[in-house]
Amino acid sequence: xxxxxxxxxxxxxxEGDSAVIKCTYSDSASNYFPWYKQELGKRPQxxxxxxxxxxxxxxxxIAVTLNKTAKHFSLHITETQPEDSAVYFCAAGPSNTGKLxxxxxxxxxxxx
Amino acid sequence: xxxxxxxxxxxxxxxxxxxxxxxxxxxxxxSVYWYQQSLDQGLQFLIQYYNGEERAKGNILExxxxxxxxxxxxxxxxxxxxxxxSALYFCASSVTGGETExxxxxxxxxxxxx
Lengths: 112, 114
What we know:
Largest interface: A-B, 26 and 27 residues
Oligomer: heterodimer
Largest sheet of chain B: 7 strands, mixed
Order of helices and strands of chain A: EEEEEEEEEEE
Helix content of chain B: under 10%
């Protein structure tokens, strides 16, 4: 069935360092790969997304790369700040539907 | 603020009871999605509606049902509640429900079943 694996489950970095979160997906027909940031008790908020016709996308300190052949995609956060601390979820959108299959989440802690 | 609203914010009820969660999508969005977030299961897709019609279904229990009304708001009905139904329930919306559209999440309803 449709599945998204996300690693690591927790990640601790020093302020200013980079953080990388990786996801793999099972449905080769997936075309849409968003990343959401969720602070404790709050809604998931979209931080960046990528569609299958693009291999890389960048928005200031955040970048996402997609390898459709290997069925994996990654989130890169550079120059991390304490306010980046949150749970990050990757997701994949199987073709022909709007539903999202989410990874299990990565708790990122940025130490000042 | 995403523009998606959900009520109530919190709900405490007992096992065996029935509750209704409500969602209003962003202005102009025709598609609504429901997700369940529990501690051990992460974010799980339940069901999607587009302009009043069911479009996609996930692992939604038979005890759960949903609908989208002509004014595009949606309700998720949970019946014969069990302890394991305690979770955060999120509604999201997008313009047409297409496979590459951004979904905007509401603030969620926290359900506690005692």
